[in-house]
């Protein structure tokens, strides 16, 4: 099916929104030695739909940041074991936690001391006698801002798919898991055929729409939306977990047929776009890069053999 351009733009927007449909509740890690404060904050934030984990011992925070992977850390300043701002400083020395906001929650009302704590790596400073609404608003605003930031860092803006860096990281994780647990793993590199011609004949905005229509198809058809990434311009990466090469090639070929069936629209009417793909499977001793290279080699064969086909 094809739609007029303005409607198509709207559909693309909705597609991008789709991913936000399954909004995950914010995960809050609350570090406070006071049970009273912890109980109050936990009740308020859980009541607003958040998932709260309370830690009374600040020295356990690093382990819990890794395990719980919170959207936000609420940190008391005065605790018997150590100061919250010292904890913040320690966390900020580790790049892996850069995208977790730290908000102090303290009875401290002295401006200078608040600023000092923030200079140690805190994003905000909340004073403990606030009302419930204020706490919920402050936590959700900061958590949401960081989520948006993370989304921009990991996703491609044209398609909403994982970007190059993140799909390669995702593949590396799956390669490690497949080796460790002796699972099958295949990888497909998909490349639109003669894409330069599409750009040259119809213009870049039509080219962009072809890229988006393929992204949408791949996102909707893959078992897990994060198994698809935009590897490069008109190149896509498909991670087929628990698939042999043959099975992954069959399923990639089904996608190829579906893509053939889409009518792409330009100013004068419709045209058909095609892709070629190369599929490789993980063998003993192979790295993620080896897998990508093998798929690339198979893609090259598919192109040389006439395009619009899946190579092994
Ligand atoms: P082949 O069948 O061998 O893959 O031919 P091709 O023309 O698709 O191959 P090539 O890789 O040489 O061309 C890809 C082109 O895609 C080059 C580049 O200008 C274009 N391109 C890359 N990213 C984008 C994008 O985001 N939007 C548009 N419209 N074009 C893009
Ligand atoms: Mg305290
Ligand atoms: Mg290419
Ligand atoms: Mg191409």
From TrEMBL:
Residues annotated as domain GGDEF: 183-312
GO cellular component, one term: plasma membrane
Keywords: Phosphoprotein
EC number of this enzyme: 2.7.7.65
GO biological process, one term: cell adhesion involved in single-species biofilm formation
Any GO MF annotation of the entry: diguanylate cyclase activity
Keyword Phosphoprotein on entry: yes
All residue ranges annotated as the Response regulatory domain in the record: 27-143
Catalysed conversion reaction: 2 GTP = 3',3'-c-di-GMP + 2 diphosphate
Residues bearing the modification 4-aspartylphosphate: 76
Record keyword Phosphoprotein present: yes
Origin: domain of life: Bacteria
Name of this chain's protein: diguanylate cyclase
Organism (species): Chitinibacter fontanus
First and last residues shown, out of full length: 105 to 416 of 420
